[in-house]
């Protein structure tokens, strides 16, 4: 008899909780439970979330459908001890071993499958909404990069003002906004400037990439940077030359430490790295 009462009591609690959840959904609607949009890649309908987006992993599910997510290769397993580039037989990848990349961090996905097309649409086709998918993926890795490290602020790799005027937005800043939101840290989007309108890195070989971007950044608001821990954000890690130059500018201005996170990373052999990314 006592057991039946116990079960009945638990059922009452369950009905009360589920009824309360339904009322919350009815009262607050899109605030806590945003309606699903179409898949950012193929446009197919997405299932509505059962619960609010408490984690970036859950939030990614509301930007890409299951079929498209299956075409995303997330980084895992052993990688370069500095930049995290996957599939490295040596402790350091060729770029870190030759100091082309001199900043530590990690990347969320491998630049293959649907990631190249997502990146192209975001950068060159005006598809700003795709920053949500790439940014939430980057946030997952950002949490790992920031573990045990007191991040002060998130800083996007900037575009030169002329290229910014042409494109209308900085894709790295949109991705960084998602990273900052999920890490609960401020986004400092105007503390790092690009002083030279450099040639696009795509199409340049490894040596030319480093020369092209060297000294292209300067940090401002030095007082706020002093001894701060900065998480740099960009869309794609290729050789690491851009991130290294940006990190150098922050460190010269007084930042205590700099790490990075990107939405994706290329893993093609160096002799093939003349893509459109």
Description:
The protein has helices spanning 2-28, 56-60, 66-69, 94-97, 115-124, 131-145, 161-167, 171-183, 206-213, 222-225, 241-252, and strands at 104-110, 153-156, 192-194, 217-219, 229-237, 257-265. The protein is of the alpha/beta class and 277 residues long. The chain folds into two domains: 2-60, no CATH class; 73-272, 3-Layer(aba) Sandwich (Rossmann fold). The strands form two sheets. The chain has a four-stranded parallel beta sheet. A two-stranded antiparallel sheet has the order 3-4. Helix 6 (131-145) packs across helix 8.
What's the helix-strand series?
HHHHEHHEHHEHEHEHE
Unreliable spans: 9-33, 271-277
Computed CA radius of gyration, to the nearest angstrom:
21 Å
What integer is the average pLDDT?
Answer: 82
